[in-house]
Amino acid sequence: ADLGLTNIEFAAQDVLELRAEAAYDLVMGCNMLNFMNTPDKLARACANLCRAARPGGLIAVQTPHFWTLFEPFTRIPLLQFLPIGLQDRIAPARAKRPLMTDNRLPSLGELERAFSSCGARVLAVHRPSRLRRWLGYPVILWARR
Q1: H or E stretch covering 139
Q2: Of 7, 15, 64, 137, which alpha carbon lies 20 to 30 A from 32's?
Q3: In what order do the strands lie in the sheet with 53-63?
Q4: For residues 48 and 14, what is the distance between their CA atoms, to the nearest angstrom?
Q5: Digits of tens for pLDDT over the chain (145 positions)?
Q6: Total Cβ atoms within 10 A of residue 57
Q7: Is 25 helix (H, G, I), strand (E, B) or coil?
């Protein structure tokens, strides 16, 4: 508004409930795909993001990823590699999170397949530097519908 722009709309919506059809030039998802705790939910979320972008529109997601030394929300080393039941016992003991079952870190390949399967073409993946990747920094993925 300060710049006098009138053709910008911001909308915050639940990605699993997103019903927009080819409505946006740019659809962004920040730190939410990791809460799609099953492969089916991840695929549905990516499909909804794709459907919301107009043909030729861009989709940008920033998400923590699986291959990191420190689990990004608890900062506990290697936590995501343990069975979920053990994660659920360790995380609360360290007073970090009550449960880990709501969180599932996707791999980069999983993200690329999910977006490709809904008709989006992955344009670029910005991985953090090696050190930042191991410290748990997120990846940013750009796709075009």
Answers
A1: strand 139-144
A2: 7
A3: 24-30, 53-63, 139-144, 121-126
A4: 10
A5: 888 888 887 878 889 988 888 888 999 998 888 888 888 999 999 999 999 999 999 999 988 877 777 887 788 888 888 887 888 888 887 766 666 677 777 888 888 999 999 999 888 887 766 666 666 667 788 888 8
A6: 18
A7: strand
